[in-house]
Structures are given as C-alpha cells and as structure tokens.
C-alpha cells in the first residue's frame, strides 16, 4: 500500500494505514491532514478534515452509507433496495425524495419533495429513449448501430441529428435548418478543430499530454496556453495580452496577473476563499465548516453576515443597516421574509413552482394568474374579503417577451396601457395610453398617448426614457450591480422593465422573470432553477456578471457582449478592407479603424485615424468640459473621434454607442491615453479596451 505519493515538481502526499490495511490519514503537500475512522465492521464511520470538522457515516451490513451527518451536524438518510440502490432520500429537513430503477439499474423516476417528477425510459440496450423533466416537457433520443446517438428532439420540437465516424467519434451535428457543426480529430482521437453552424472554424493544438496549447478563432487570432509539470495553467497569451497564474502547493490558485489587474487570493486548508485582493482592493470572507460564507467585509469596510438552515438555505442577513430573516416551504421556495419583528412578505406557490399569492406588510393581498405556457397573464389586488378584485393588470406576450400591460384601478380615470417594442432582448420604445370613458359631457372616449424612446445598457436594461415630444429625459434610473433600481422623484414617467426578461413588481420588490422571481437585494432567485444543476452549479444565483450576461427566461445565463463585440470587429475589418481598396499606390493606410453601433437604432458608424481635418468639432462640442485636451493632444487624430463625429452628425447620442477599434492587422486596438481621457465622458461602451 502506498505511503508516499510523489508528483512531478516534488510535491508529496503521505498516507497511513491501520492493521487491516485501511487508510487512516492523508497529508497533502501543505501539511493539512485528513483522518479516517471505521466502525467495528470495518466500514467507514467518519472523515475529519484538516480544520477538525468531521463528517459521520453510518453504513448497512453491505458497507453502503445509509446515514450521513455533515460537518454542520445536519443528517441525511438513504433507503436502499435489495440491490443497494437508493430508493428514498430524507434530507436534513425531513423532506423525502424517491427514486425508482429498472431491473438493470437504470434510473426511471425522480420524485422531488414538492411532488414534481422527472422520468426516463430506455431501450433494450439501456440507452435513454425519453426524458421528461419536472415541467412535463419531454426530450426524445434515437440511436444508430453500436448505440451511438443518432438524433435528439427537444421539448420545443427542435431536432438535432448526430453523425459518427468508424471510431464512433462525433463528427457532425445537423440542426433543423440543415446547418452542420463539424468536428475533426487527430490520429489519437483528440479534437483539433470544429466548425459551427455558420461555418466559423476554431482550431486547437495539443501537446504530448493532450493539453490544449493554442486555440485559433475564425478570425485567425491565437490564444496560447502554458502549463507546469503538474498540468496547471501558468500562462495565457491572448493576442499579445499575457495573463499568468500561480498556485500553492495544494494546487489552489492564489494569484493571477493580467495587463489590467493583479489578483491575489488566500484560501484555507480546504481551499475555501478567505480573501481576494484586486488591484489593492480586498474583499474578505469568514466561512463555516461547510465552506459557506458566514461573513463578508468589502474594501469600504461594509460588513454582512449570513446564517443557514440544515438544508444550506440562507435564513438571515445582518448588515450595519438592518437584518432580514427568510423562511422557505418544503420545495425550497422562499415563502416568508421579515424585517425585525415586522412581516415584510408572505407568499404561496403552486405545484408548478409559480408564485400565486402574496401578502404585503400592510396586509394587502395579491393574486397572480398564468397561461398554459407559464406566462403571467394577470395580477389582481384583492379586497379585504380575499375574493373581490380591486385592481387588475392584464399582460400580453409576444412569445416570451412582454408586449403590453393594461391596468384597471379605481384611482385611474380609465384603462392605463403600457406597450413595448423590442429588438431582440433590448426594449426600444414604450408607449403609454390612458383612456377616459365617455360621459354625458364627453360623448366619446378620450385617449391620451405618450411615446418614449428607451435607452438601455449593454445587456438591455433600461436606463433612460426619452420623451420624443419634448426631447427631454422623462425617466433616469440608478441601478446597483445586481439590479436594485432607484430614480428621482422629478421623473415624469417610469418603466417596470429591468434586466432583460424581468418585470418589477412594486408590491413585493421582486422581478418577475418568466420562469422564476428574482430578488435584486439578495442577487438570488426566490426558488431553485427548474432545470436543476444543468445551467449552473448554483441553482438559486443570478448570472455571474450582470454587466455582460443576463437570464431572460429565468432558466439559463447567456452572454450579451461577445456576439456584439464580434459583430463590430467584423464590421471594422470590412471597413478597413474598403479603405485599403480605395487607396492609391503611394497613399499610407490609417493605423486604426473604429466601428460603433447605436444600441437604440442599430445604426453603425465608422472612423479612421489620421491628421485632423477640422470636421471633428461636433465631438469637441459634445465633450464634457473637463475632458478637453487633458494630455495636450487634440481630439481629432484617432479613429474614435472620427466615428463619434459621424454618429453625432447623424443625431445619435454618444452614450448609446458601443464601439471597437482595430489596428492594421485587424486585431483589437486599445485606446490611446488621449482617448482614454475623453471617451468615458461620453458614456459609450468600449468593447476592446
């Protein structure tokens, strides 16, 4: 039995054993020791980590765990059939999950504590034929010889077909439009290139150990990777921008340095993050026995502390400004929240995980209604009897996007309607209509209508509403990183639209997100993801970076920036080629090419570097005063001011421009020091640094 394990680089692990040959301890290269103990039958009874926290296990006669008590003292129990397969799990709160199996040991059903069921069926060879999720949606699978997957049909009817080579390696995926995603392998069976449905090819180069050492994208840009003898990534060269990584002896990443940031991390013996310093700003955590953050201190000194229940759900948040307490139902959905001794929110959910009723702090009752597709079609404010509807808002949908709402309430002169027009996930316009019913004095209905253009951020969150009649800002919002929104009292209108796909409910402070409700104050959803762990490891969290990612359906995060950046990079390269094609033999080409897109109109503007022509006065006039000539250079020699000039002359607002700049080689070109001084004052979003 090995007592010493030495890896390349000189790192060693030491193990000890008892007389029966069972491992009793493992010491890693940092000196942290994990200890193991056994019961009288020789089955594993406990594991004690390097910090002294123990997990206790009780096994049956076959040595299979039937009870596990974690490091926080919470116990889970497992019921097994005669074959040792788990048929019931009782969690730390006493809720039961049940599982069924085929004779061959294939999982056929998973019944969650909330009553929802996930099922699978199989063919005679044990290949999955169907999978029905907890929402009742079914995915079907078809197979070719040798049990290779031939086709998959998703719940929405989307069908993909799969092709394999003689080595049973996947070589092509064909979608419903007949487009093909192709894969190429080297003689060792390692993936070396793939071409997507649009024909864009990404290539990979691997070393003798099978590690990717370079990746080349469709534009020919290359990212190179370097590894140490342990296979840990130590450097990345992305088109000349070098990032380096460092690790401790246990393999925990403790430092990363890029052209823009130096990140230092400290971890405990178990690898839990204790502090992270980014360019001198430090965030610290205190963690419990399970590695959960129990307190956090930000660089400004702000502190927050969390407590958890036995199921790992957060039960309280304490900050210098106050304390919140949370309660949940058996399905893990938040159903009560209190501030001090006062109830702030009580809610009820149906079997499909939809919020159906809410009681607000003042005792007001709200009811929510949904259509067969799970879209919320109405919300009612109820009278004291809990039945009579005092206020009603009806919603109209365009697919999964909210198109309109109409509110009927006694405090309104008539139906009040808000209508929205979108381009993709970005709302473009809000139209408000209020109808005053006819009376004896006014025989016809009176209709008042207002139109507002919507300005959004990069991902599609509204930041301003512009009254086109008066050419003034009618609403301007201030939003935290996680979407908590405030606005000045002097605004003449407002919008309930928030992050893409989210709608603000003032009665709860929550954002309706089609399949779930999101709480911007805690940056978490109030119920677990219906898709489970497939989209992300944390089923309750929002996206990891709200600046560039969003979750329009409340199911799965998606990146909003990369497609736009790629589009603008491609447009800038096309513009560069056009400029070069028009040059004479003795003419010198510009060194930089800027492309900008107005996110409200979709218009694209271009600009190239070169001697100032005097036509850039529009940019100089629009600059914030404090940005003028900070480094002594005029604002008219780079590609960026030329692009902004063209945009401003066309009537565009610089704050709505997303831009990229490339060099002669067609690669991203960071702004010069002069442009770094004034471009941020415009408020546009620079996608290439």
TrEMBL record:
Residues 103-255 form the Teneurin-like YD-shell domain. InterPro entries: Rhs_assc_core, RHS_repeat, T6SS_VgrG/RHS, TEN-like_YD-shell, YD. Gene3D superfamilies: RHS repeat-associated core. Residues 575-588 have a biased composition (Basic and acidic residues). Signal peptide: none annotated. The keyword Nucleus does not apply. SUPFAM superfamilies: Tricorn protease N-terminal domain. It holds the Pfam family TEN_YD-shell. Residues 575-615 are annotated as: Disordered. Keywords: Repeat. This is Teneurin-like YD-shell domain-containing protein. It comes from Streptomyces gilvosporeus.
